[in-house]
């Protein structure tokens, strides 16, 4: 009998052991109640088959444990089926009326308690579940001891000690099996619940990482992460654009100096090295491949140890901002030029006209050998007057009268003058005009002045063997005028200042010619651009937007 009782205990624990093996993934959660109900039903039949029978023919088994556990973890459908199965296995074993009455009372008391807890059992915490199971166990044990007491009274048993001992041991076994089943089931549910929560947290973490990655990759900033040894670990797409033709695999693991160090960068020491030496934040203005960057380099600390985990490098391309600042500075200089021109032009030109008149009179009355001196004075006066005229042209913010015209017609008017000037200098002049030229809104006087200024600048930049070429190109939205010389070229540093007033690369220049050209081009809704290589020459490109087109 004791062996049968031990076998009952092992059989009663089979459902939770099978449940622990089967329920190992969150995907099986929807089938967990069905599986537990089926296992408890099968085990209930096994407990009946291998029940322990005492000397009075009374059956001892743990089928009621299957009823409790299967109902609580299987839900209402499982509770109903297991109740029917429990009654169906009990009735054939009863012979006395009082047994049927006791079964009916047991079901009337237990089932309301059981079904009221089944609906909310899965939503409660572990401690509340144990309390509910405890009340059910007390109810079952109370009926069990009442029924067994009635059997002892009816059979007039003399050896009460052994019988009571068996009943107590059976009760202890019942408590053990019930609580062990609940605890193992709870452990299994908790393990899978933790797996599910871990998956949710991991997915949220991956989503946040993906969002952060998209933010870093799509932000218009250069973002790079370096490890504690100064080696690149991550770089975004914007940084890779400036590192072209290098690919991501080429830059990962490299140090900053080997990737971005150039002679025009002002760093005496790499900002990465400075941060590694102890500085928390380093800000610099750097130039790289012709672009200007405002850079911030700071530490990335590891929590909670607050140790250096890596270094963050962020760079903002402020080339356009710098260009706008330079444009504002240029406009301020032009405004200064305008104020100067407006205040002194008339005061200077009137005395100069009087001086020129008397110089001409003295030239007519002077000796022949002295007339050359007067011609020098007259030439310098004319040069000063030309400078004043440039001042006026540059400073005047007037609305020019433009008419529909053909750029080729204006070129044909000034080409003879350019050819004659080039011929006097011993230089070669070439004109390459496109076949078809669309009409533009032009001020003929200003455009002719623009062409002559650009051509003379090109001739002055060449020696007597130089070649000057003027080309025109007709694009879909724009028309280009190109003035190309074979002179000495202009360095990058000088190109950036060519259109500043008073800045000149010529020994006797005033620095007003190209600013004047720029103001003419801007008044005609155009743009001017310089391309030059030292030792190979310079190309001035003037682009005019066609009427009705949105070019810029």
TrEMBL record:
Keywords for this protein: ATP-binding, Kinase, Membrane, Nucleotide-binding, Phosphoprotein, Transferase, Transmembrane, Transmembrane helix, Two-component regulatory system
Annotated ranges, domain Histidine kinase: 343-544
Record field: catalytic activity: ATP + protein L-histidine = ADP + protein N-phospho-L-histidine
Family matches, as NCBIfam families: sensory_box
InterPro entries for the chain: HATPase_C_sf (IPR036890), HATPase_dom (IPR003594), His_kinase_dom (IPR005467), HisK_dim/P_dom (IPR003661), HisK_dim/P_sf (IPR036097), PAS (IPR000014), PAS-like_dom_sf (IPR035965), PAS_4 (IPR013656)
Molecular function GO terms recorded: ATP binding
Keyword hit for Kinase: yes
Database matches in SMART domains: HATPase_c, HisKA, PAS
Enzyme category, top tier: transferase
Keyword Magnesium appears in the UniProt entry: no
Spans through the membrane: 34-53, 65-88, 100-121, 133-153, 165-185
Taxonomic superkingdom: Bacteria
Gene3D superfamilies for the chain: 1.10.287.130, Histidine kinase-like ATPase, C-terminal domain (3.30.565.10), PAS domain (3.30.450.20)
Pfam family, one: HisKA
PANTHER family, sorted: C4-DICARBOXYLATE TRANSPORT SENSOR PROTEIN DCTB, SENSOR HISTIDINE KINASE
Cross-referenced SUPFAM superfamilies: ATPase domain of HSP90 chaperone/DNA topoisomerase II/histidine kinase, Homodimeric domain of signal transducing histidine kinase, PYP-like sensor domain (PAS domain)
Protein name according to UniProt: histidine kinase
EC number: 2.7.13.3
């Amino acid at each position: 009998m004791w062996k049968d009782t031990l076998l009952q205990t092992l059989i009663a624990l089979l459902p939770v052991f099978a449940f622990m093996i089967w329920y190992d993934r969150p995907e099986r959660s929807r089938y967990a109640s069905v599986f537990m109900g089926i296992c408890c039903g099968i085990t209930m039949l096994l407990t009946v088959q291998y029940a322990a029978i005492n000397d009075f023919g009374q059956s001892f088994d743990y089928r009621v444990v299957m009823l409790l556990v299967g109902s609580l973890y299987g839900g209402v459908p499982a509770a109903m089926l297991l109740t029917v199965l429990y009654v169906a296995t009990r009735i054939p074993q009863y012979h006395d009326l009082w047994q049927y009455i006791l079964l009916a009372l047991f079901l009337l008391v237990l089932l309301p308690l059981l079904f009221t807890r089944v609906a909310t059992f899965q939503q409660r915490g572990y401690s509340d579940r144990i309390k509910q199971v405890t009340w059910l166990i007390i109810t079952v044990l109370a009926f069990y001891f009442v029924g067994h007491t009635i059997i002892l009274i009816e059979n007039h048993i003399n050896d009460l000690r052994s019988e009571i001992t068996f009943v107590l041991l059976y009760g202890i076994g019942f408590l053990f099996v019930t609580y062990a089943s609940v605890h193992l089931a709870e452990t299994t549910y908790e393990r899978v619940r933790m797996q599910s929560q871990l998956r949710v947290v991991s997915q949220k973490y991956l989503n946040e990482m993906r969002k952060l990655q998209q933010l870093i990759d799509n932000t218009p900033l250069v973002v790079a992460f370096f490890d504690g040894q100064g080696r690149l670990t991550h770089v975004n797409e914007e940084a890779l654009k400036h590192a072209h033709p290098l690919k991501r695999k080429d830059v990962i693991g490299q140090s900053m100096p080997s990737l971005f160090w150039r002679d025009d960068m002002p760093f005496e020491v790499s900002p990465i090295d400075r941060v590694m030496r102890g500085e928390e934040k380093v800000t610099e203005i750097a130039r790289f491949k012709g672009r200007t960057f405002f850079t911030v380099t700071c530490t990335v600390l590891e929590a909670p140890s607050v140790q250096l985990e890596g270094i963050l490098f962020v760079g903002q391309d402020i080339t356009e901002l710098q260009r706008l600042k330079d444009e504002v500075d240029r406009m301020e200089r032009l405004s200064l030029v305008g104020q100067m021109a407006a205040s002194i032009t008339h005061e200077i030109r009137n005395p100069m006209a009087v001086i020129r008149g008397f110089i001409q009179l003295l030239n007519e009355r002077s000796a022949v050998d002295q007339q050359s001196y007067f011609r020098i004075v007259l030439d310098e006066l004319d040069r000063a007057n030309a400078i004043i005229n440039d001042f006026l042209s540059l400073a005047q913010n007037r609305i020019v009268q433009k008419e529909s015209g053909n750029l080729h017609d204006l070129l044909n008017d000034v080409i003879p003058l350019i050819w004659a000037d080039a011929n006097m200098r011993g230089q070669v002049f070439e004109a390459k005009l496109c076949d078809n030229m669309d009409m533009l809104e032009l001020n003929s006087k200003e455009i002719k002045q623009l062409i002559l200024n650009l051509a003379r600048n090109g001739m002055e930049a060449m020696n007597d063997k130089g070649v000057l070429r003027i080309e025109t190109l007709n694009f879909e939205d724009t028309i280009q005028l190109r003035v190309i010389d074979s002179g000495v070229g202009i360095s990058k540093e000088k190109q950036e200042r060519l259109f500043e007033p008073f800045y000149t690369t010529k020994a006797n220049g005033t620095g007003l010619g190209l600013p004047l050209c720029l103001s003419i081009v801007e008044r005609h809704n155009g743009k001017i651009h310089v391309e030059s290589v030292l030792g190979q020459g310079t190309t001035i490109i003037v682009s005019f937007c066609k009427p009705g087109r949105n070019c810029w």
